[in-house]
Structure formats: structure tokens, C-alpha cells
Amino acid sequence: MTASFPKKPSVNNDYLARFVEWLDVEKGYSQHTMTNYQRDVEDFFAFAEEPPDLASLDPLFVRSYVYHLNTRCKSSSVARKLSALHTFFRFLRREKIVATDPFSHVSMPKQGKYIPVFLTVDEVFSLLEAPDARDTFAVRDRAILELLYATGMRVAELASLNIDRVDFQAGMVKVSGKGNKERLVPMGDPALDMLNAYLPQRRELTTARVKRGLRPEKDALFLNARGGRITTRSIERLVSFYAGRAGIMAQVTPHALRHSFATHLLEMGADLRSVQELLGHASLSTTQKYTHLTLDHLMEVYDAAHPKAKRSLD
């Protein structure tokens, strides 16, 4: 069964609008998550030929929809869509529109063990040094790369970062993460030096924008060629471009730098709780995926620290 989502205003549309507002105002979800959740609920509505009665959904309809998802989507996409529907019906229960969650007995699909993509220390250094004088925005781009690796920020956090969130004296950044939760992250001297080197170019971009008759972007730390706030897509493109120039064969994204940040900290002996705080993870279990240290490193630590690891030379 397939049909278009009703174009005329309907009770489902009203519920959906209120749901998205709830995600924004009360839950503090990111725009990306809200867009995905709205689309997932719309897909659920579109599966029915008639707008479903949310207060008394037919269990057969629910099973049919779950089967529909499992035959057309990857397990990770199915899990996200079911999570969106769980959240939607939790909202409806809160509003006393429904009494139960019809998806409460639906099992989440099993996920394969995810190992984050990360770079070696040498690869990171090669990437950081890839911008050069030939590039118009070499200083800005180097500052972006340095800050991504120095802080482990998500790309959306970096794009939304305002200049007043950077403490240039203390070398700290106040990051606004998921759910509008804030955390303080140190950035280190290399990133701080590149940020200071970038500030004159930021002023030039702002001046040029004003000369074109546009309102200056006073808040954003990183600006694009037009003097406006840089987008996440632009950051993703520049990271990929410089990774190619550095000869890194793997597909490098800003998130790979976040993974590298966490992995390298753990390899150098940082404790898991500290890395959790720096990354802004709500749960320690989320941070534990970074404990995939190489066998060689683990053996080195074992040989150096375990009293029974030393072999006799006799």
C-alpha cells in the first residue's frame, strides 16, 4: 500500500506540527534530527491509503509497516525510523491523544558492530598541513582543521560556533552540543595560533560583505567567501579536498577527525570519563566505541606495565 501524504490540513498534520515544536522547544533536538523525525513520521502516514486512526491502530497495520521498512531499508535506517515513531507516540501519550505506543512491542533490528573510521597521527598531521599559500582560504581552512582535531567537535557544532564562544586568553571553547547542552573544551596552542592568524581575514570578509550592501555576520566564527556563516556542507567539502591532497586514501569526513581525536586521547592514556566529557556524550557507552585501540599499542602497554610480561633473558 502506498499513497501520498495528505496535502490538505488534517488532524495528523496538526499532531505532526505540534510534535516538531515539542522536539524543538522542550527536547532541544538539532534541526537535522527534527527534519529526519518529521520525514520518518510523514513516511508512516504515507504508508496508509487513509490517514490512520492513531488512537486505535490495527496491530496488523503496524506489522505490515515494519515489514515494509525491513524489506526496503538498511537496519540502521529502520532503527532510526522506529525510534522516531517511538518518540512520536510518546509525545501523543503525553498529550493524551493515545493511550499506548503501538510500536512498543516491536524489536529494534540488530546492528552490526560499528568501528569508527579514524586517522593515524601521521595522517592527521599530513591533513593539517595540506592547506598552503595557493589556497585563498588557507589560513581559515587550517584553523578549521586544527579546531576539529583539537576539540573533537561535531561539524554542526563548529559551523554554529560564534566568536564570543572562544576564550582566546584561556584557550577554551564553549561548545553547544546536542540538546543545547554546553561543554567547555580546551583547544591547545596550534589551534589557538591558527584562529588568531585567521581573524584578520575574517575582518576582511566582513568588510567586503558590508561594501556589497549586506548586513555583516557579527556572530559566526567561520565565514564563507561571501562573508556569511560557513555551512556544514562546505566544511565537509574542504576536509575531503585536503585529505585528497594529503594523499589519504580513506574517505575523510569531519567526523573522522572527531573519531581520531577520541582515539588518540585514549591511546595516550586519557580516561574514558574525560573523553566522554570532551565529546559531549550523554552516555559512557557511546564513548566506549572508541576503545578499539590497535593490538600493537595494547601489547606495548601490556609489556611495559604488566609485572609478568617481562621475559627472562637467561
Question: Summary?
Answer:
With 314 residues, the protein is mainly alpha-helical. The protein has helices at residues 11-25, 31-47, 59-72, 75-94, 121-128, 138-151, 155-159, 188-211, 232-245, 254-267, 272-279, 284-287, 295-305, and strands spanning 166-167, 172-176, 182-186.
Low-confidence region ranges: 1-11
CATH superfamily of the largest domain: Intergrase catalytic core
Overall 3D form: globular
Structural class: mainly alpha
- Amino- and carboxy-terminal Cα gap: 77 Å
Quaternary = single chain
The CATH architecture name of the largest domain reads Orthogonal Bundle
Q: What count of structural domains?
A: 2
* Beta-strand residue fraction: under 5%
Report Rg: 24 Å
The helix fraction, in percent, is 40-55%
Give the strand order, joined by hyphens, for the main sheet. Answer: 1-2-3
Largest sheet: 3 strands, antiparallel
